[in-house]
Records
---
Amino acid sequence: MTALIAGNGAERDKQWSSSNLVGNPALSAWNTVMSDCVAEMNIDSAERSTFSARWDRYGLGPIDINNFRTAEQTISRTAAMVRRHPDEVYALSYMQQGSAAVRHAGIDVHVPQGSFILVNHASPYSFRFPEGAVALTAHMPASWLRRWVPQPETMLVKTFDADAWGGALAAMLSAIDQKGLRDAALSRSCIADQLGAFLALMNGNVSAGESLHQGKLFKRALTLMKDRFDEPDLSPHALAAELNISKRYVHKIFAGHNTTFGAELLALRLNHAKDILQDARFAAYRISDVAYACGFTDPSHFARKFRERFGHAPLALRNHA
């Protein structure tokens, strides 16, 4: 992935076109250019024999504007690619022409023409452009983006319409695409700041309350925990890896529901322990066996937490079952 660094950014300006290539060589070259200059990815197309694409990049201080014009294609960034290049870079795409079917963080979303979507290169994703597309995309390092949007995770896999402040941002990206930056009256770093300000304003119009994305992730997190609560090493880090999000965002989605990962995990384990103790089929289980079966590594810790939650010791509950 191209390093995004401070400075004017003009040295990163670049153009590429498949106009001199035909068919499979064009698609192969497109794969190479995108992986070398944007982010490692795999690109395929049902139109291999006639595939065409064009890419224009403009450096804006610490960020890049990458404008793509392509025939029908599917882009995939896999977990293995993320492990090789784990840089946390966010990509905000404006679908100027065409639509996209996106999968990211386990969520599927349709992005219609005239809408924005944000993804994080530090997590796997896929884009399918069924009829080709013109996508105007800002690639932004997380450290820069958080100056404008302190928690960009809340914007992931949500569509934003190009109206109000979104319209201003779309107009800016379209102007850069049409006219370039050679004769711009402001410095490129200043233009990048304008983009960041528009992005913050656009997010502010729609981010009040719980996002649909957060709600879906919370439900998925609870489902995964119900399936894996008996694993002693289940942790926020392990859950984050399963959901393809950051550990910090795991804590955020639980906080958004007035709870914590630890509280939910403990409740799952203790409730299951209670069920075991009241089930005659498990009468042969010692208290330590019940603890281990529910993910506890220390039977005395299990007994203490059980008493705190239910008001009596595990053995007492069994004796009264």
---
Amino acid sequence: MARVPRTRVPIPEKPVRFMHKLRAFIRSRGLSVSTEGHYCRWIKRFIKYHSFNDPSEMMPKHVEQYLHHMVVVDEVTTNTQKAALNALAFLFNQFLGRPLGQIRVTKSKRRRKVPVVLSHHEALSLIAALASPWRLVAQLMYGSGLRINEALSLRINHIDFSGGLIVVNAGKGGKDRVTLLPESLIPSLEQQICMVQALHSADSRRGLGRTYIAGGKHSPTKSRAKQLGWQFLFPARSISFDVQKQVPVRYHLSDAAMSTQLKHATRSLGLTKNATPHTFRHSFATRLLESGQSIRVIQELLGHANVSTTEIYTHVLHKHGLDIASPLDAL
């Protein structure tokens, strides 16, 4: 039985070491496994840069020095520098309780690459070349602007058929948001939910039926693990083992498998563009801009913290729209 993919690093119940305490604090804030990993990697690099000195004895100037080093020596992009700053801001502002305040940041001069975008025809052709359930995953990324892990982490109760919405729970940065539910996907989603229900019933009859939910062994979310509404919309084909809770669980499909399926489909179509799962999200934003939607609306749908991130798709602001149609419905 395989372990839960991307499971959290085990920590003692009463952590003593600095990184164990940090991880325990991150988990107490309900941040995702991915966010925990990113924060801890940047904080480790920061500590290593300062010769493994105790972060609790460091000052804002030490953060400035590290960010300056990243730009001048490592020549990182602006986004990479921002990712490090976000992790260090969490370290000082929340974990250590010592706000950084205004710090001087040497800005990167490396320009962001223009994202690869598929035409509507290319996107639909690539989606059609995928087998089930990967096709539905791609349709959600293109039709709703989801990141790959947001799509794979969807649970049944995240699909709001009556409201025509998809709830993205704990997306990037631990933020929740809502986005479009393409009307054309409702039959496929209903069929997928029926499949999950049948699989969950079969698992339950075998004494299983638990899904993976982050949290400790005695987490209050433990009871949700067996409820149908909390099952992943795209469950893994096999049962995994949650080392932290010491129970068998059914996780969701892996992003690596999705990337492999997409790579095969791209080659089969002879597409010369370097299409990745994130390309569907780029294409979603571009379609909405082309249709005249407000960049602020698109920012909300994508879950971007800063509108400048959304503006990479265009330098021209379009008029505000009232009704928003998913690009998947624009046939």
